[in-house]
C-alpha cells in the first residue's frame, strides 16, 4: 500500500465529497505474479499465438504442456497487437519490456474487473468507477459528469474519464439532448466522443481494452478533455521516474498537494508571469554548459597556455630586460584579446592592432619632431646648466638625469603646446575612425595607447626619443607570436571549421529544439495553460538562439575566404549555405509564432474568466459567470466578439482542445521527416568537420561516400514525399470536423428548411481553425525551406566527396569588409561603456546585404526607399556659392553628429588626463604613479553611444575591486615572504586568472566586462609587483597591498573620467536606455510593417496589370535563384535581425535597471517587461506575415487587399498613426493624446461600415425587416468566413475554399495582421500607463456619446446583439 498516495487520495475524496473503497494491489513479491511471468515465457517459447486460448480455465496459473525446448532467458516484450508476439531486440524501449511490476499492475486491475463482474449485488444498470491511487480531478467534476452523462446512448460499456496517447476527440461529439444545460460558458467545453484508441487506464491492461474497443467488442466513450488525470507526483511503481512523458492537466485542478498550494501562494510565483528569456538565470548558470562543451574547454586551455607563456616571459630576466617596465602588457593583451578565434580572424585583428600602433607611433614621432623644432634653445641651455648644478656625487649621472627628466626639469611650454595640438588632433582622428568604422576599433584603441606614451613622455625629454613606443610594441609582438603559435599548435581550428560548428550548435540544434517543442505542444492539451506557457517560453529561448546564431554566422561568413583551409567545403560552399539561413530563420520563427498565438488565446480566455469570476463573487459559479461582463460597464466590441466565438467553438467541439489532436496526427509523418532531415544535416556537418587532414592525405573511400550520399538522398526524398502527402491528404484531416456543415456534393454551406429557422443554418465559429491553419502553413513552409537546405547538402556532398586545400580568395574585398558598418558586429571594444551603434535610433541603419554574392543569381530589382525629408528653412542651392556653403554647413554639422561628438569626447578626455604629465609640478607624481594607465582606461572606456552607463560603470568598478583582492592574494601566494618566486608567480597567476578567462569566453555578454576587468586588474597587480622588485625603476610603488590599491585607483580614475565625459550633455541610465530603445524599436517595427504592406500592394498592382512573374527552382544551382518574394524575405531579414539584436541587448538593461537608485520613485519594471514581451511577439507576427506573403499567388494577394478590412486605407492610417504616436510618446516621455483609437474596434467598425465596398453591391436591409437582418448581420460576426470579426475575403465560405492549398497561407497572413493589431492595442495600454494621457473632459464625454450613436447607426446595437444570450 502506498501510504503517500493514500493521504492525498483521502484529501481529494473529502474535499469533493466522494465515497469510494480501496482495493489492495498485488506487488512483485506476490507468488502469483512470478507464476504468471513464468507461464507467459513458457507459452510464448513453446506455442504459436493461434494455439493460445486465453479464455480457458487456469490459462496462466496452469499453462498447457510445452511442445518444444525449455524457456529462453531474454526479456519478454509486451504484446501490442492481437495474435502477435514481438521479438526482443536490444533496442527495444524499456516500457515495452514485460516486468514483474507491470504484471503486478495488470493482475491488480484484472482482479478488480473480475470482482466487479462476479458481484451479485450489482444490477445491470449500475455504474462502477475505477480509479488509480494517484489521480487528480476537476473541481467541478460533479457538474461536468452530470452534464455529459445524459449524452450516453443505451447499451454503452465503458466511459473513459481520462486518457492519453490517443486522439479521443477525432470523431464528432455526441449531440446533447434538448434539455441539456451547458455548464461551461466560455471555458473549454466538456464533450463526449466515441472512443478511438484510449490508453492510460494507467495499467498494462489498457492495450487489451483498446483492442476490444477498436474491434467493436466494447462500446466505449471518452470525455474530452479529461476530467480525471494522473498526477505523476511521486515515483512510479511500473516505469522509471514518475512514469510516461505524457502529462495531462485540468482546467481547475484540485491542489491535492499542500506543497503545491503553498508554492502557488508564494510571492515568488509572480516572476512566473514573465517569459523565460526575461527571467534572470542563475549568475553562474553558464559554467556547467561551458565545462560540458569540448570546444569551449579546448579554447580555454589554449588561452590559459598563452597567458602562462606571457607570464613566463615576464619573469624570465632576459625577456624582462628586453620588454622593459611594461613587460606585463603582453599578459594584459592576452586577457583582453585571448586566442579564442580562428587563426585567420586573429591574424586580421592583430594586423589591425599593429597597424594602429604603427600609426600612433608615426603620429607621435611627428609630434616629437615638431616639438623639438620649436623648442627654445636658450631655455634648454639654462635647464641643462640647472641639471648640471643639481648633480650629487656618488650617484650615477644617468640615473640622476633620468630623474631630472621625469621631474619635468626640461619641459618647454612651446614644445608642450605642439605636443598637445598633435595629441588632440591624433586622438580626435583615431576616435572618429573608431566611431565611423567599428571594425577598426582595435586600430583606434592601440594606436591611441602608443600615441599616449609618446606624447606623455616625449615632452619631458630634451632630445629626440623616437623609440619610446617600443615600451608597448615589444610586449605586444611577444604576445602575437605566442598567440599565433598556440592557435597553430594547440587544438588548431580554421574559420571554416568554426563556421560549420557554429552552424550546427547555434542554428541547427535550436531549430531542432523548436521543432521538438512544437511536437510536444500539439501532443498536449492547450487548456493546460501552464504547460503551454512553459513550452512557449522554452520556444522563446530557442528562437533567441536561432536569431543570435544567424547573426553570428552571417557576420563570420564574409571572412571565411581569407584563410588557407583544408576540408570538404570551401568558402563559396559556405556562402551558398548561408544564403538559405535567413529564409529558414523566418520559417523557424513561424513555428514558434503558432505557440505564441495559442498561448495568447489562453491568456485572453484566462482574463475573461477572471473578470467574470471576480464579478460573480462566487467561486462555485465560476463557469456559469464567464458569460457575464465585468462589473462597472459592458465589454468592448472585441471582447464581446471573443466571448461569443469561444462559446460557439465550445458548443460544437471546434476549440483548440478538440483540434489539437487532429494537428498532431495529421502532421506526425511530416514532423518525423523534418526531425530526420535535421538529424541527417547534423551528421553531414559533423562528417564534413571530421578527419580534415587525415582525409586529405588518405585515399577516398568511394563506398562510404556513396553510402553517405544515399542516406542524404533518402532523407530528402522522404521529406519531399511527406510534404507532398501532407499537402494533398493529411492537411485535410483538420477540415473533417467541419465537413458536416457543407453539402457533400456542391461543397456549399447547408441551408435550413424549417419555417421558424433563420435564413441560414447556424454556422461554426472558426477562429481556432484559422489559428490551426497557421500551424499548417508554418510547418509546410518550414519543411519546404528545410528540403531546399537539405538539397544543398546533397549537392555539395556529391560535389565534394573528400577534403581538399582551399586557397584564400577574399583579399580583394578586404577593404570593403573592414569598412562595413553592419549592426550585427557587436562588442568590438570589450572595455567600452556603451555600444558602437545607437540603441535608441534606427536612422543610421545599414542596408547592406550579408550575402555578398547573392545578387549574382537574383533577377528582381527592388527599388530603394526614398526619403521625403527636406530642409524647411531653405530651398535647394542653385549657385556655386550656395553649394559651397551647403558643403561647409555639412562639415560643421559633422561635429554635431554622434561620430563627431565621440571624436571630441575622445580628444577632450585624453587631453584632460594628459595635461598633468607636462606640468612641472605634477610630472614626477604622474610618472611615479603611472598616471598613463588612467589615460588609457579612460580612452578604452568610451563608447560612441551611451549604453546602460550607470550599471556599466559599477560593473567595471566591481571587477576592479575583485581583481585587486584576487591579485594581492595571488602575489602573496606566489611570492611567499620574499620578492616573488618565478614559478610560483606563473602558476598562481595562471590558476587564479583561469576562471576569469573562462568567464571571458563563455559567460553571457552582460557578465563579460566583470570577468575581463577582474583578470586585467589581477595581471596589473602581479605584473607591477614583479616589475618593481625585479627591474630597475626610478620609483617603486611597492608590492602587494601597497601597490595594488594605487593601480586599482588608476583604473577607477580612468573609467570615472570616461564616465563623466560620456554623461554630457546628459547621463543615460539603464531606465532611460530601456524606454528610448523600446521607442526606437516601436518605430522600426512600424516601418517594417509599412514596407511589407507596400510590397503587398505593389504585388497586387502587378497582378492587375497582368504581370505574373515567378522564378522557378530549376537547374543545378536552383537554391541560388530565389523567387522575387523570397528575395524580399532575405532583404527584410536584415532589419528583423537588427531589431531582434536591439531587443536581445536590452535583456541586461531590463535587469540592471531594477537596481538603480530610484530617487523619483520605483521603476515600473513589470510594465517595461510587458512592453518588451509585446514587441517580441509583434516581431514574430511581422515575420510570420512576411513569410505568408511569399506563399500567396497573385489571386489571393488581390483577395487579401480588396476583400478583407485589414488593408483598408483608413485602418492602415490608424495603425501607422498609433505606432508613430506610441514611439514619440515613449521617446520623449510625452503623454498620449486623448482617446487614442482602439484598433480592434476600428477593425470591426471598418468591417461593418464597408461591406458594399469590399464585396461588391449588396442589398441594404429594409427598415421594416431590421430585426431579422440585424440578427443575420450579427450572426455573421463569428461565422466561418470571419476571423476576429473580420472577413476572410469571401462572400460565402465553402468546402472547396477550406480545402484550397492557398487558404492556410492566406489565413496565416490575416491572423498575423490581426495579431499585429491586437499587440499594438496592448502597447497602447502599457504606454498609457507609463506616460499618461492628456484628458479633455468635454471631448471624452462627446467621444463616448458619439461611439454610442455610431453603434446604433452601423452596428444595429452591436454590443447588445453580441452580448450574452
TrEMBL record:
<dbReference type="InterPro" id="IPR002654">
    <property type="entry name" value="Glyco_trans_25"/>
</dbReference>
<dbReference type="InterPro" id="IPR018820">
    <property type="entry name" value="BRE4-related_DUF2421"/>
</dbReference>
<feature type="transmembrane region" description="Helical">
    <location>
        <begin position="980"/>
        <end position="998"/>
    </location>
</feature>
<feature type="domain" description="Integral membrane bound transporter">
    <location>
        <begin position="923"/>
        <end position="1061"/>
    </location>
</feature>
<protein>
    <recommendedName>
        <fullName>ER transporter 6TM N-terminal domain-containing protein</fullName>
    </recommendedName>
</protein>
<feature type="region of interest" description="Disordered">
    <location>
        <begin position="53"/>
        <end position="76"/>
    </location>
</feature>
<feature type="transmembrane region" description="Helical">
    <location>
        <begin position="299"/>
        <end position="316"/>
    </location>
</feature>
<feature type="compositionally biased region" description="Acidic residues">
    <location>
        <begin position="848"/>
        <end position="859"/>
    </location>
</feature>
<dbReference type="Pfam" id="PF13515">
    <property type="entry name" value="FUSC_2"/>
</dbReference>
<feature type="domain" description="DUF2421">
    <location>
        <begin position="1065"/>
        <end position="1333"/>
    </location>
</feature>
<dbReference type="Pfam" id="PF01755">
    <property type="entry name" value="Glyco_transf_25"/>
</dbReference>
<feature type="transmembrane region" description="Helical">
    <location>
        <begin position="416"/>
        <end position="433"/>
    </location>
</feature>
<feature type="transmembrane region" description="Helical">
    <location>
        <begin position="472"/>
        <end position="491"/>
    </location>
</feature>
<feature type="transmembrane region" description="Helical">
    <location>
        <begin position="345"/>
        <end position="364"/>
    </location>
</feature>
<feature type="compositionally biased region" description="Pro residues">
    <location>
        <begin position="62"/>
        <end position="76"/>
    </location>
</feature>
<keyword id="KW-1133">Transmembrane helix</keyword>
<feature type="domain" description="Putative ER transporter 6TM N-terminal">
    <location>
        <begin position="286"/>
        <end position="735"/>
    </location>
</feature>
<keyword id="KW-0472">Membrane</keyword>
<feature type="transmembrane region" description="Helical">
    <location>
        <begin position="954"/>
        <end position="974"/>
    </location>
</feature>
<feature type="region of interest" description="Disordered">
    <location>
        <begin position="1252"/>
        <end position="1274"/>
    </location>
</feature>
<feature type="domain" description="Glycosyl transferase family 25">
    <location>
        <begin position="84"/>
        <end position="150"/>
    </location>
</feature>
<feature type="transmembrane region" description="Helical">
    <location>
        <begin position="907"/>
        <end position="925"/>
    </location>
</feature>
<dbReference type="InterPro" id="IPR049453">
    <property type="entry name" value="Memb_transporter_dom"/>
</dbReference>
<feature type="region of interest" description="Disordered">
    <location>
        <begin position="833"/>
        <end position="874"/>
    </location>
</feature>
<feature type="region of interest" description="Disordered">
    <location>
        <begin position="611"/>
        <end position="631"/>
    </location>
</feature>
<dbReference type="InterPro" id="IPR018823">
    <property type="entry name" value="ArAE_2_N"/>
</dbReference>
<feature type="transmembrane region" description="Helical">
    <location>
        <begin position="1047"/>
        <end position="1065"/>
    </location>
</feature>
<feature type="transmembrane region" description="Helical">
    <location>
        <begin position="440"/>
        <end position="460"/>
    </location>
</feature>
<keyword id="KW-0812">Transmembrane</keyword>
<feature type="compositionally biased region" description="Basic and acidic residues">
    <location>
        <begin position="861"/>
        <end position="872"/>
    </location>
</feature>
<feature type="transmembrane region" description="Helical">
    <location>
        <begin position="322"/>
        <end position="338"/>
    </location>
</feature>
<dbReference type="Pfam" id="PF10337">
    <property type="entry name" value="ArAE_2_N"/>
</dbReference>
<feature type="transmembrane region" description="Helical">
    <location>
        <begin position="1010"/>
        <end position="1027"/>
    </location>
</feature>
<dbReference type="Pfam" id="PF10334">
    <property type="entry name" value="BRE4"/>
</dbReference>
<dbReference type="GO" id="GO:0016020">
    <property type="term" value="C:membrane"/>
</dbReference>
Amino acid at each position: 500500500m502506498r501510504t503517500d498516495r493514500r493521504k492525498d487520495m483521502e484529501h481529494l475524496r473529502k474535499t469533493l465529497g466522494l465515497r469510494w473503497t480501496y482495493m489492495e494491489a498485488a506487488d512483485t513479491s506476490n507468488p502469483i505474479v512470478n507464476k504468471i511471468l513464468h507461464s507467459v515465457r513458457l507459452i510464448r517459447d513453446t506455442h504459436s499465438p493461434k494455439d493460445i486460448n486465453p479464455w480457458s480455465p487456469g490459462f496462466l496459473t496452469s499453462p498447457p504442456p510445452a511442445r518444444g525446448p525449455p524457456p529462453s532467458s531474454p526479456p519478454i516484450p509486451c504484446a501490442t497487437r492481437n495474435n502477435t508476439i514481438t521479438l526482443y531486440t536490444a533496442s527495444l524501449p524499456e516500457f515495452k519490456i514485460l516486468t514483474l511490476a507491470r504484471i503486478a499492475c495488470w493482475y491488480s486491475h484484472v482482479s478488480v474487473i473480475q470482482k466487479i463482474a462476479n458481484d451479485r449485488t450489482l444490477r445491470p444498470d449500475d455504474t462502477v468507477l475505477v480509479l488509480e491511487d494517484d489521480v487528480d480531478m476537476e473541481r467541478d467534476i460533479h457538474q461536468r459528469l452530470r452534464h455529459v452523462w445524459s449524452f450516453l446512448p443505451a447499451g454503452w460499456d465503458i466511459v473513459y474519464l481520462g486518457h492519453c496517447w490517443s486522439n479521443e476527440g477525432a470523431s464528432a461529439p455526441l449531440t446533447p439532448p434538448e434539455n441539456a444545460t451547458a455548464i461551461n460558458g466560455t471555458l473549454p467545453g466538456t464533450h463526449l466522443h466515441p472512443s478511438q484508441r484510449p490508453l492510460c487506464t494507467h495499467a498494462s491492461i489498457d492495450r487489451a481494452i483498446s483492442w476490444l474497443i477498436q474491434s467493436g467488442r466494447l462500446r466505449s466513450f471518452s470525455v474530452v478533455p479529461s476530467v480525471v488525470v494522473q498526477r505523476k507526483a511521486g515515483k512510479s511503481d511500473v516505469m522509471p521516474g514518475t512514469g510516461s512523458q505524457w502529462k495531462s492537466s485540468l482546467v481547475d485542478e484540485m491542489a491535492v498537494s499542500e506543497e503545491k498550494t503553498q508554492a502557488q501562494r508564494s510571492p515568488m510565483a509572480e516572476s512566473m508571469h514573465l517569459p523565460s528569456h526575461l527571467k534572470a538565470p542563475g549568475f553562474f548558470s553558464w559554467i556547467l554548459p561551458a565545462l560540458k562543451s569540448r570546444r569551449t574547454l579546448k579554447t580555454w586551455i589554449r588561452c590559459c597556455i598563452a597567458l602562462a607563456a606571457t607570464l613566463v616571459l615576464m619573469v624570465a630576466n632576459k625577456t624582462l630586460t628586453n620588454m622593459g617596465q611594461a613587460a606585463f602588457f603582453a599578459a594584459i593583451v592576452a586577457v583582453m584579446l585571448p586566442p579564442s578565434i580562428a587563426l585567420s580572424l586573429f591574424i586580421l585583428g592583430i594586423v589591425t592592432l599593429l597597424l594602429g600602433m604603427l600609426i600612433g607611433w608615426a603620429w607621435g614621432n611627428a609630434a616629437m619632431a615638431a616639438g623639438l623644432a620649436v623648442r627654445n634653445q636658450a631655455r634648454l641651455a639654462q635647464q641643462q646648466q640647472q641639471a648640471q648644478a643639481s648633480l650629487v656625487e656618488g650617484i650615477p649621472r644617468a640615473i640622476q638625469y633620468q630623474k631630472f627628466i621625469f621631474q619635468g626639469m626640461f619641459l618647454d611650454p612651446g614644445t608642450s603646446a605642439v605636443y598637445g595640438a598633435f595629441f588632440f588632433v591624433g586622438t580626435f582622428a583615431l576616435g572618429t575612425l573608431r566611431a565611423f568604422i567599428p571594425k577598426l576599433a582595435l586600430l583606434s584603441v592601440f594606436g591611441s595607447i602608443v600615441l599616449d606614451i609618446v606624447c606623455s613622455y616625449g615632452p619631458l625629454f630634451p632630445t629626440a626619443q623616437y623609440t619610446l613606443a617600443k615600451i608597448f610594441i615589444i610586449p605586444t609582438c611577444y604576445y602575437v607570436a605566442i598567440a599565433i603559435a598556440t592557435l597553430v599548435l594547440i587544438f588548431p581550428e580554421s574559420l571554416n571549421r568554426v563556421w560549420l560548428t557554429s552552424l550546427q550548435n547555434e542554428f541547427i540544434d535550436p531549430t531542432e529544439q523548436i521543432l521538438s517543442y512544437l511536437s510536444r505542444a500539439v501532443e498536449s492539451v492547450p487548456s493546460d495553460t501552464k504547460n503551454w506557457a512553459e513550452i512557449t517560453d522554452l520556444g522563446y529561448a530557442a528562437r533567441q538562439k536561432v536569431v543570435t546564431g544567424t547573426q553570428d554566422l552571417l557576420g563570420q561568413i564574409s571572412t571565411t575566404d581569407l584563410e588557407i583551409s583544408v576540408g570538404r567545403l570551401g568558402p563559396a560552399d559556405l556562402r551558398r549555405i548561408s544564403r538559405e539561413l535567413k529564409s529558414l530563420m523566418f520559417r523557424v520563427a513561424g513555428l514558434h509564432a503558432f505557440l505564441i498565438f495559442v498561448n495568447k488565446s489562453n491568456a485572453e480566455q484566462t482574463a475573461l474568466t477572471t473578470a467574470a469570476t471576480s464579478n460573480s463573487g462566487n467561486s462555485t459559479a465560476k463557469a456559469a459567470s464567464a458569460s457575464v461582463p465585468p462589473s462597472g460597464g459592458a465589454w468592448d466590441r472585441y471582447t464581446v466578439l471573443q466571448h461569443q466565438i469561444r462559446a460557439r467553438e465550445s458548443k460544437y467541439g471546434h476549440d483548440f482542445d478538440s483540434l489539437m489532436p487532429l494537428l498532431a496526427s495529421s502532421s506526425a509523418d511530416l514532423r518525423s521527416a523534418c526531425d530526420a532531415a535535421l538529424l541527417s544535416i547534423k551528421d553531414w556537418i559533423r562528417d564534413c568537420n571530421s578527419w580534415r587532414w587525415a582525409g586529405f592525405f588518405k585515399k577516398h573511400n568511394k563506398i562510404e561516400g556513396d553510402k553517405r550520399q544515399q542516406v542524404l538522398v533518402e532523407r530528402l526524398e522522404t521529406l519531399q514525399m511527406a510534404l507532398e502527402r501532407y499537402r494533398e491528404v493529411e492537411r485535410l484531416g483538420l477540415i473533417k470536423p467541419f465537413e458536416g456543415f457543407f453539402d457533400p456534393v456542391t461543397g456549399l454551406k447547408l441551408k435550413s428548411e424549417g419555417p421558424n429557422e433563420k435564413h441560414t443554418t447556424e454556422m461554426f465559429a472558426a477562429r481556432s481553425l484559422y489559428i490551426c491553419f497557421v500551424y499548417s502553413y508554418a510547418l509546410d513552409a518550414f519543411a519546404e525551406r528545410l528540403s531546399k537546405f537539405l538539397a544543398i547538402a546533397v549537392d555539395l556532398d556529391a560535389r565534394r566527396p573528400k577534403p581538399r586545400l582551399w586557397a584564400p580568395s577574399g583579399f580583394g574585398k578586404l577593404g570593403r569588409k573592414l569598412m562595413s558598418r553592419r549592426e550585427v558586429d557587436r562588442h568590438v571594444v570589450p572595455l567600452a561603456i556603451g555600444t558602437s551603434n545607437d540603441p535608441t535610433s534606427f536612422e543610421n541603419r545599414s542596408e547592406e546585404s550579408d550575402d555578398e554574392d547573392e545578387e549574382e543569381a537574383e533577377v528582381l530589382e527592388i527599388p530603394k526607399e526614398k526619403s521625403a525629408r527636406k530642409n524647411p528653412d531653405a530651398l535647394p542651392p542653385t549657385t556655386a556659392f550656395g553649394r559651397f556653403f551647403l558643403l561647409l554647413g555639412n562639415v560643421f554639422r559633422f561635429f554635431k553628429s554622434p561620430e563627431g561628438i565621440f571624436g571630441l569626447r575622445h580628444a577632450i578626455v585624453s587631453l584632460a588626463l594628459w595635461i598633468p604629465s607636462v606640468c612641472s609640478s605634477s610630472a614626477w607624481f604622474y610618472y611615479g604613479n603611472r598616471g598613463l594607465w588612467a589615460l588609457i582606461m579612460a580612452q578604452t572606456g568610451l563608447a560612441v553611444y551611451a549604453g546602460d552607463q550607470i550599471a556599466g560603470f559599477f560593473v567595471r568598478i566591481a571587477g576592479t575591486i575583485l581583481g585587486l583582492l584576487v591579485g594581492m592574494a595571488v602575489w602573496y601566494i606566489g611570492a611567499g615572504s620574499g620578492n616573488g618566486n618565478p614559478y610560483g608567480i606563473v602558476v598562481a597567476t595562471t590558476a587564479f586568472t583561469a576562471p576569469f578567462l573562462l568567464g571571458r569566453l563563455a559567460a553571457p555578454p552582460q557578465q563579460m566586462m566583470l570577468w575581463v576587468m577582474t583578470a586585467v586588474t589581477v595581471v596589473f597587480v602581479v605584473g607591477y609587483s614583479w616589475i618593481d622588485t625585479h627591474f630597475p625603476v626610478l620609483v617603486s610603488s611597492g608590492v602587494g597591498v601597497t601597490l595594488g590599491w594605487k593601480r586599482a585607483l588608476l583604473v577607477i580614475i580612468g573609467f570615472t573620467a570616461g564616465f563623466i565625459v560620456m554623461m554630457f550633455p546628459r547621463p543615460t541610465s539603464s531606465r532611460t536606455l530601456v524606454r528610448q530603445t523600446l521607442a526606437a524599436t516601436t518605430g522600426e517595427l512600424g516601418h517594417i510593417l509599412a514596407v511589407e504592406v507596400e510590397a503587398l500592394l505593389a504585388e497586387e498592382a502587378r497582378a492587375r496589370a497582368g504581370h505574373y512573374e515567378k522564378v522557378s527552382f530549376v537547374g543545378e544551382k536552383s537554391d541560388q535563384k530565389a523567387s522575387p518574394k523570397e528575395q524580399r524575405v532575405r532583404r527584410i531579414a536584415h532589419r528583423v535581425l537588427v531589431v531582434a539584436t536591439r531587443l536581445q541587448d536590452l535583456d541586461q538593461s531590463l535587469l540592471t535597471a531594477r537596481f538603480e537608485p530610484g530617487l523619483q520613485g520605483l521603476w515600473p519594471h513589470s510594465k517595461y517587461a510587458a512592453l518588451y514581451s509585446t514587441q517580441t511577439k509583434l516581431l514574430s507576427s511581422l515575420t510570420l506575415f512576411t513569410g505568408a506573403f511569399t506563399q500567396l499567388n497573385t489571386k489571393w494577394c488581390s483577395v487579401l487587399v480588396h476583400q478583407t478590412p485589414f488593408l483598408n486605407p483608413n485602418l492602415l492610417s490608424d495603425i501607422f498613426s498609433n505606432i508613430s504616436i506610441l514611439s514619440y510618446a515613449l521617446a520623449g516621455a510625452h503623454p498620449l493624446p486623448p482617446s487614442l483609437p482602439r484598433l480592434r474596434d476600428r477593425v470591426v467598425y471598418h468591417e461593418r461600415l464597408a461591406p458594399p465596398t469590399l464585396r461588391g453591391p449588396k442589398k441594404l436591409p429594409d427598415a421594416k425587416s431590421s430585426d431579422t437582418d440585424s440578427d443575420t448581420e450579427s450572426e455573421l460576426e463569428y461565422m466561418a468566413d470571419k476571423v476576429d470579426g473580420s472577413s476572410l475575403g469571401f462572400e460565402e465560405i465553402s468546402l472547396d475554399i477550406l480545402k484550397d492549398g492557398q487558404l492556410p497561407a492566406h489565413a496565416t497572413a490575416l491572423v498575423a495582421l490581426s495579431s499585429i493589431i491586437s499587440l499594438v492595442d496592448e502597447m497602447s495600454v502599457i504606454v498609457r500607463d507609463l506616460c499618461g494621457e492628456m484628458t479633455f473632459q468635454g471631448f471624452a464625454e462627446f467621444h463616448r456619446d458619439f461611439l454610442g450613436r455610431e453603434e446604433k447607426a452601423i452596428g444595429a446595437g452591436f454590443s447588445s446583439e453580441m452580448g450574452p444570450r
